Amino acid sequence: MNGALRPVALIARREFASRVKGRAFIVGTLVVLLLLGVYAAVVATLASGEDTARVGVAGPAVALTGPLERAAPTEGLTLTVVPQPDVAAGEAAVRAGDLDALVAGDPIRPRVSVESEPDAALERVIVDATSAVARDAYLTGRGVDPAGLDAAVAESGPVVVSAEPPDPQAGQRLGLGLAGAFLLFFSIQTYGAMVAQGVVEEKASRVVEIVLSSVRPWQLLLGKVLGLGAVGLLQLVVLGGAGLAVAGAAGVLSGGAGLVSTVVSVVVWYLLGFALYATVFAAAGSLVSRQEDTQSVLSPITITVLLGFVVGFNLLTSDPRGTAITVISLLPPFSPLFMPARIALGVAPVGQVVLAFALTITFTAVVLALGGRIYANSVLRTGARVSLREAWGRARS
């Protein structure tokens, strides 16, 4: 290994090992995994809990048996129709909880007996069934065959011709894109701020003075960025993999939805985005010497990223092909957040992806150069907060 890069690797390894073994990383990851597990259990319970009902019919209302069974699926209801020997027996079954309702009397205007009040879906099913019986009786009385009319209506309707066939996986792609954008935002914000806090801690404890007696400032900065970037990437892979597993188990996600390309693009753009933001956070953290002052220098960065994320997220959900989100996804500070999502949705042309990648690489190189110089000229200055003008002035001098 190149002699200049050996200290970088050692620093990166130390940062990675100390963070991964730390309680905050382990507990935080386990908590998120636990929440994903609870979510999967809730979804599975809701999916398995079918909406069912038992309805008794008595007297002339027995004629409603077929219409009730045909109307139930339209309301998502699994209905069991149970003929009753008489009204008294049916009402006793309702009071005992064996039936959800008893339908008796005239099938066009029946009497419905329930324990307290009917379920909304069940009530709609009964209304649909009585309406169907009333309609058929009306048509038959005027010499019209109800079955023939239904067949004629079923054969009618417009024929839709689409210039662009609909994407059956559009919903899955949108979900993958939004999940990728959120995970990137969460990881970059969390571990970028961690870089800044680490810089401030070392300045406050004067450890940085000892470290910089053996390595150069740019080596220390790059080692921190690489080490914490690897930590963030590890957590991103763990949480992302668990999320995909939960989505697959819940039936929300199926195979062949562009998973591989989405995962690859998220990882690549994460690495670019983290290098960019971590350098900015480290340079900002080097301007202060106390943890109490850290938030004051990080707030402008975090607010800018948050506003961009909120605006871009809304644009992505409303119009992923629109001009506004296209422009935002090409801007280097936000490309790592939204270009993977647009790639997952299949709305980002190859030319736009290449342009965004090139712009982000260039912008990141510039930020690394400028941020590294500010870091080098500020990290050894303790005491009062170093203004950006002072740090930049020293960098230029």
From TrEMBL:
What topology in the membrane does the UniProt record assign?
Answer: Multi-pass membrane protein
Answer whether the UniProt record assigns the keyword Transferase to this protein: no
Q: Say which domain of life the source belongs to.
A: Bacteria
Q: Which Pfam families match?
A: ABC2_membrane_3
Instruction: Show the stretches that span the lipid bilayer.
Output: 174-200, 221-247, 267-288, 297-316, 322-341, 353-376
Could you list this entry's UniProt keywords, alphabetically sorted: Membrane, Transmembrane, Transmembrane helix
Q: Which residues are in the ABC-2 type transporter transmembrane domain?
A: 24-371
Localization (cell): Membrane
> Does the record carry Transmembrane helix as a key word?
yes
The record's annotation in InterPro entries points to:
ABC2_TM
According to UniProt, the name of this protein is ABC transporter permease
